[in-house]
Structures are given as structure tokens and as C-alpha cells.
Write a structure and sequence with these properties.
19% of the residues lie in helices and 26% in strands. By secondary structure, it is an alpha+beta fold. The chain folds into three domains: 91 residues, 2-Layer Sandwich (Phosphorylase Kinase, domain 1), CATH 3.30.200.20; 168 residues, Transferase(Phosphotransferase) domain 1 (Transferase(Phosphotransferase), domain 1, Orthogonal Bundle); 105 residues, Tumour Suppressor Smad4. The strands form six sheets. The chain has a six-stranded antiparallel beta sheet, covered by helices on one side.
């Protein structure tokens, strides 16, 4: 009979050994432990696939697929409102994920503790973060639809930063498909199209966020497929403004065409009705070190999928591609603005982003002069290569740089992953490999 990991037991990964400190949760799909990474004594969460004994082989296979789907999906993403993934490995034939440990409580725990409607300003500030991370997911290539937005899947830290957790039912959007293969989600938060009647898209997550707002502002669990009406929310919470109530009603329209057409649009609407300056709690937030300091010589990062492998591995344990410098990939940047578009290939670094200035003999590798209206500085940012990774560094530009919708602190390199979007004014640059 298989047993859960015992406290103080040691689990060996590719990057480090991990000491189990305590189990922090378990369910039908797996168990989650708080662990210490012995290489640098930092605290992480280790999620282990642990199907029930009565599960049939076909069900166990599905659980393994969903578990690894969540792991690979999270590892491919980089956003301050998503938990960072350090590594994925197999322990005693079962897959494990080591990810950022998020202290705090879920929004569901928060509303249960208070047991009363929450203040509108507090809820709006939290849901602006949720909308922004959804916009990040929806603008990946292909788009990622979360499909299970609800209070229990949003962690709130003491510093007011939220983390979206549990990607077990997230899926990539299949353009042109008339309906989802499997209807999944949570009753009360899932829109009509998620009940097998159509294909989910970004607007399905908008509905889930509207339902989450409704729950937090009324302390009443949403009734499945019930749409609130004007006046129904304000009667239960005097802090809700007419504008905020209209946002909820619009987000929960049964017809997707009548909802906000993107999470970004909903975020802007929430900002507009906030009624006070918005202090973004994610500014300056940096992810924990994925690779322990001083241990990079003992591992190698796959250039195709970013999986961390042992130094003696010849092939990536995740994607199967050869490791080493023989298969060096070219960076491809897709530059787009209302003034036109371009494709820029880079094989030498650092590469400068800016505007050409012939008088001063300045010719950046990524020249935005033909696509920008003067927002970009002549020497705006750099793309650098370091330890097998590509990083974006703002050079103290006048108007700033955004990465996946979040401002980049000057002189602070940020990792770049395929599908990431750099924005400078009205110019958007998508980062890819080829």
C-alpha cells in the first residue's frame, strides 16, 4: 500500500534534495507538501501525483496526463500572479512538481473567515490582478483558457499579491472548434458554453471572474447560470457603486458577445471605477530563484522547453530534444504596431531595442523608428543572454517597458520565454525561438 511522504523524509530531484516539512493539502489527484530545498534552504511546495487505490487504470492514466499538463503549462509561464515552477521530476515512478510556496489564504477562505460581504475597493483591487493575469494567459500562443476561476483558486498573500493556482482544467483555445471535448469547471462560476454547449474562450474566464466578484461582494455562492440584475448586488452591499455593479452584470451575460471581450478590457473597467489611485502590489515582486545559487554548473537547461536536466543528460527529460550547444536556436521577434510589422532574427547578444540615430551613429538591432511614435528611447532596452537564458533589461527608459502587461523595473533583467510580449508605447514585440 502506497503511503504519503512522511515529515523529514528526503525526495531527490534534478536540482536538489528536498526535505518534507509538512503536508499542506491532499485530494483525489495528489498531495501537496511544504518542503525545504536543501541546496539553498529555501521553502517550496512539492505536489505529488497520488491517485486513489480504487481508481481504474484508465482513470489513473487520465490523472497522470492532467497532472503533467498542469506542470508543463505552469513551467512555460512567467507572471507575478502565477506560482513559479522550479522543476518536474519522477519520485518512485510518480511525477512531482516543485513550485513556489504561496503563504496566505484563498479568497474562499477569506470570505468564510469574514462571513460577510467584502468592501468593494478591496475586492476590486484584488480582481484587477486576476483580470491582468487572465489577460496574460489569453494572449499566449496559443491562448490559455483557465476555465475554473473561483475564490478557492485565488491565493491572497499578506502583501496583497494574488496567485492563481490549480491549472488542472486549463486548456489551450482551439480556433474554429464548435464545442469543448469535455465540459469542466465549477457550478456557479462556469458560463453556459462550459456545460458542453460551446467552446470556451477568453470570455468564459470573464464570466468566472464576474461570478467571483459577485460571491465576494455578497457572501452568497453564485447560483449556476443565474444572471444578476441591476440593483441586486447593491442591495446586499452598500459599498458597491452602480459602475461596479454594471461590470458584474456585463461580465455574467449568458451571451459571450455581450460580455467584456477580453480580461484586459474588464481590468480597465475595474480600474476606472476604483475611485482611488491603484497601487499595484506586484510592482517590484520577483520570483524565487528557480535554480539554487551556485548550483548552475550541475544542471543544464533545455533551450527548447526550459526544463532543467542533470548535467550528464544527453537528451531533455521533458521534450526529448538533444541537449548541449549543437542545436543552438535563433531568437525570433515579431514586431507589430499600427504603423506596420516586422520579423527580427537574433543570434548575437546583447541586442539593443531603440530608435536609430544616424547623427550619433546609433543603430540598434531592434530598430523601432518605423513603428513607434517617439515613445521608445534611442537606447531603450536590451535583450541579453545569460546562463542559457534570454533576459529583458530596461535601460532606464523615459517611458518605460512592459513585459506581459506588467511594468519592468529599470536595470532589472527579467527572464523571457516563448510567447512573452514586450510592449513599448504602441509597439508590441513577441518573443519566440525558431
Amino acid at each position: 500500500m502506497r503511503e504519503y511522504l512522511a515529515n523529514n523524509s528526503i525526495v531527490t530531484g534534478a536540482l536538489s534534495d528536498y526535505r518534507v516539512l509538512a503536508m499542506i493539502g491532499r485530494g483525489g489527484m495528489g498531495a501537496v507538501y511544504r518542503v525545504m530545498r536543501m541546496a539553498d534552504h529555501t521553502v517550496w511546495a512539492l505536489k505529488e501525483l497520488f491517485p486513489t487505490e480504487e481508481m481504474r487504470p484508465v482513470e489513473e492514466s487520465d490523472q497522470r496526463r492532467l497532472f503533467l499538463q498542469e506542470a508543463e503549462l505552469l513551467r512555460s509561464l512567467a507572471h507575478p500572479n502565477l506560482p513559479a515552477v522550479s522543476e518536474i521530476f519522477t519520485h518512485n515512478q510518480w511525477p512531482c512538481i516543485v513550485m513556489e510556496f504561496v503563504p496566505g489564504q484563498t479568497l474562499d477562505e477569506r470570505i468564510r473567515t469574514v462571513n460577510a460581504p467584502l468592501a468593494a475597493v478591496q475586492v476590486s483591487s484584488v480582481c484587477i490582478q486576476v483580470a491582468r493575469v487572465l489577460e496574460y494567459l489569453h494572449t499566449r500562443t496559443p491562448p490559455i483558457i483557465y476555465r475554473d476561476i473561483k475564490p478557492s483558486n485565488v491565493m491572497l498573500r499578506a502583501d496583497r499579491v494574488i496567485k492563481l493556482i490549480d491549472f488542472g482544467v486549463a486548456r489551450t483555445h482551439k480556433k474554429g472548434q464548435s464545442k469543448d471535448t469535455v465540459a469542466m469547471g465549477s457550478a456557479g462560476y462556469a458560463p453556459p458554453e462550459q456545460y458542453g454547449k460551446g467552446q470556451t474562450d477568453a470570455r468564459s474566464d470573464v464570466y468566472g471572474l464576474g461570478s467571483t466578484l459577485l460571491h465576494l461582494l455578497t457572501n452568497i455562492t453564485p447560483v449556476p447560470l443565474h444572471q444578476p440584475t441591476i440593483g441586486s448586488v447593491r442591495r446586499l452591499n452598500a459599498t458597491v457603486t452602480p459602475e461596479l455593479e454594471e461590470i458584474i452584470v456585463k461580465a455574467m451575460e449568458h451571451d459571450p458577445d455581450k460580455r467584456f471581450q477580453s480580461a484586459g478590457e474588464m481590468a480597465e473597467a475595474l480600474l476606472a471605477c476604483l475611485g482611488e489611485p491603484y497601487n499595484d502590489p506586484t510592482v517590484g515582486v520577483t520570483p524565487p530563484p528557480i535554480i539554487p545559487a551556485g548550483h548552475t554548473e550541475g544542471v543544464q537547461t533545455c533551450k527548447s522547453c526550459r526544463h532543467v536536466n542533470r548535467i550528464d543528460s544527453r537528451f531533455c527529460n521533458s521534450c526529448g530534444k538533444p541537449l548541449g550547444g549543437e542545436d543552438k536556436q535563433t531568437v525570433l521577434l515579431i514586431v507589430a504596431s499600427p504603423r506596420g510589422s516586422n520579423r527580427v532574427r537574433l543570434d548575437r547578444f546583447p541586442a539593443r531595442i531603440g530608435r536609430r540615430d544616424p547623427a550619433n551613429r546609433l543603430f540598434p538591432e531592434i530598430d523601432l523608428a518605423d513603428y513607434d511614435r517617439g515613445v521608445a528611447s534611442r537606447s531603450h532596452a536590451l535583450i541579453i543572454e545569460q546562463n542559457g537564458e534570454h533576459l529583458l533589461q530596461d535601460l532606464g527608459s523615459l517611458n518605460g517597458t512592459q513585459l506581459n502587461g506588467m511594468p519592468v523595473a529599470a536595470q532589472t533583467p527579467q527572464p523571457l520565454r516563448p510567447g512573452d510580449r514586450i510592449r513599448i508605447g504602441e509597439v508590441e514585440i513577441e518573443f519566440r525561438w525558431e
